Amino acid sequence: MGRTPCCDSKSLKKGPWSPEEDGILVNYINKHGHGSWRSLPKLAGLLRSGKSCRLRWANYLRPDIKRSPFTVEEENLVIQLHGSLGNRHVAMSEFEIVGRTDNEIKNLWNTHLKKRLLRIGLDPNTHEPITPSDPTTAAPTSPANRHMARWESARLEAEARLSEESSLFKSNSDFFLRLWNSEVGESFRKLNKEDKTICQSPILQTSSSTKCGSVSAVTVDSCPNIAASNQVEDTECKSFKPCTKDPINASNASCSNKSDDSSDTTLKLLLDFPIDNDMSFLENVDPGIYLTSPSEDYL
DNA sequence: AACGCATCCAACCGCCGAACT
DNA sequence: TAGTTCGGCGGTTGGATGCGT
Q1: Angle CA A148–A153–A159, to nearest 5
Q2: Which residues of A224-241 are buried (b: 16+ CB within 10 A; e: fewer)?
Q3: Position A188 pLDDT exceeds 50
Q4: Second-level CATH architecture of A16-61
Q5: Which of A21, A192, A193, A227 is 20 to 30 A away from residue A203, measured at CA?
Q6: What ranges does the record list as Low complexity composition bias (predicted)?
Q7: Amino acid A72 CA to nucleotide C8 C1' distance, rounded Å
Q8: ∠ CA A161-A63-A95, rounded to 5°
Q9: Domains of chain A by residue range
């Protein structure tokens, strides 16, 4: 019973890839496509596991990978998306951040962005300001830091929104085609077909850290207009507060049992995203604190 | 120059669901 | 249907490199 093993794993090579191996893999895939990763190493003449070949190709050799450093816009987008998607780096890389691998995004998050959030007083897991009552987090939460945290949240929110709006209007048809073909579209299709709540969809079930109830509260906090106008009354996911500034969240907005939700609604939610962020909290604040604001002090 | 520490990132590991026999 | 492998994902590791003392 069961499949036969593809090869003797003991004879497989591990560790860094040599340029020769890279060349063999690239040539083979260019000629034949990767096909079955399981049989690729044998057919290509590599002493590697199919898994290793797939990783090498996906994370390094693929021709559409950007090798340049992350831009500030990309970094901000990653932070923003992390608030919505959690650690679903693959979804970020495939859907939103073109040319970046999930591994790159993962590394960026773990080495830079997590620390950046901590430094401005935000919990990287929840994206909420760290409270003094939380004994596991030692970051200071002085009034100045809290202002900085909210300031940074609002700034990231606005930048991500502008970025997405611009890409949305640049290629509307392409955007919605991608949206429909993505997990989001699949969720809509399943929703209509099975009359189930999207909270039970594989998209959300597979998310380890951002299941239905853990969409970024900071996002909502920093755009109260949305929290008030777009918050979905939720029977399945008690704490779900979608901030529908992005397609993913737009889909999450159907987290209620309203199975008649449609892409029209999603589009409306997207387009209804308020232009004005509530920056009133910046009033009555000593302007001096912005001299060391995060935007001037990128880590 | 030598050392220790911090950071980066490619690659591996472990797990899970799908696919296969 | 059961047992096994495959493919894919998120988490983690460890060697290479940079930087400060």
Answers
A1: 125
A2: ebbbeebebebeebeebb
A3: no
A4: Orthogonal Bundle (1.10)
A5: A227
A6: 131-144
A7: 29
A8: 25
A9: 16-61, 72-271
Q: Which two tokens stand for residue A213?
A: 């109830």
CA of A294 to C1' of B17 (A): 41
Residue-wise pLDDT for A113-164, tens only, equals 888 888 787 888 787 777 654 444 444 444 444 444 445 555 555 555 555 4
Q: Which residues touch strand B (CB under 7 A)?
A: A 1-3, 14-17, 51-52, 55-56, 59-60, 103-104, 106-108, 110-112, 202, 206
